[in-house]
Design a protein that fits this description.
mainly alpha; globular
């Protein structure tokens, strides 16, 4: 293994951490799930830092990193909703946004041209808010019961950032497709 492969290895480890996080949640071992989830969250920052700091970015990494994020977040959100810790409406909004992003990226690739997977700043904010919400729910369930006010407030923020970031991708792709179409017709 070369040093430049380290960010991709970290992303694969984050993908593999999804199963133990979900299992610990289902077993109601919230503190262990919290620690594993926090480790996965830190690893997301580490792989991104390494890739950018040392120029170790790759096409594989641009696919693995968001895949690892989505797999961990969506699996955890579904599990927490299943267990009654989060509202299904929020999870549905997250799933619809991700479906729109994936189907939009595929459609853009085949109808317009190559699509470079690069998260928008709104999407990064949404990811951070989603991570914080999950950490708050896990902390609330396994360490200290801080009440539902903080969870409800953070859920609202995640709801808003989910909708706004999803709309941002649709707007960006639509604008790019329109520009490309006009350029071909000129």
């Amino acid at each position: 293994m070369r040093a430049r492969d380290l960010p991709n290895v970290i992303s694969v480890i984050r993908i593999l951490l999804t199963l133990p996080v979900v299992y610990m949640l289902l077993q109601a071992h919230y503190l262990t799930a919290l620690l594993l989830f926090a480790l996965a969250g830190v690893s997301d920052g580490v792989d991104g830092f390494l890739a950018k700091r040392f120029g170790w970015q790759s096409r594989l990494g641009s696919i693995l990193d968001p895949l690892a994020d989505k797999l961990l977040l969506v699996s955890t959100f579904i599990t927490l909703a299943w267990m009654g810790h989060l509202q299904w409406e929020l999870v549905a909004a997250i799933l619809i946004r991700d479906l729109v992003i994936v189907s939009g990226a595929i459609a853009y690739h085949y109808l317009v041209g190559r699509y470079e997977m690069a998260p928008s700043w709104l999407s990064k904010i949404n990811t951070v808010c989603s991570l914080l919400l999950i950490l708050i729910v896990l902390f609330n369930s396994g360490v200290y019961d801080a009440g539902w006010g903080l969870i409800n407030g953070m859920s609202t923020i995640v709801w808003i950032t989910t909708v706004v970031s999803g709309a941002g991708y649709v707007w960006q792709w639509g604008s790019n497709a329109l520009r490309q179409s006009r350029a071909k017709n000129d």
